[in-house]
Amino acid sequence: VTIRPSTAQDLAEWIRLRRALWPDCSPARQWLEIQQLAASQHPGVVIVAERDNRALCGFAEVSIRHEHVDGTSSVPVAYLEAWYVEREFRRQGIGRQLLEAVEAWAVARGLKELASDAELETPSSIATHLSCGFRETCRAVHFVKPIRTRSGSQTLPE
Ligand SMILES: CC(C)(COP(=O)(O)OP(=O)(O)OC[C@H]1O[C@@H](n2cnc3c(N)ncnc32)[C@H](O)[C@@H]1OP(=O)(O)O)[C@@H](O)C(=O)NCCC(=O)NCCS
Question: Ligand 1 centre and the CA of 136: distance in Å?
Answer without folding.
Answer: 16
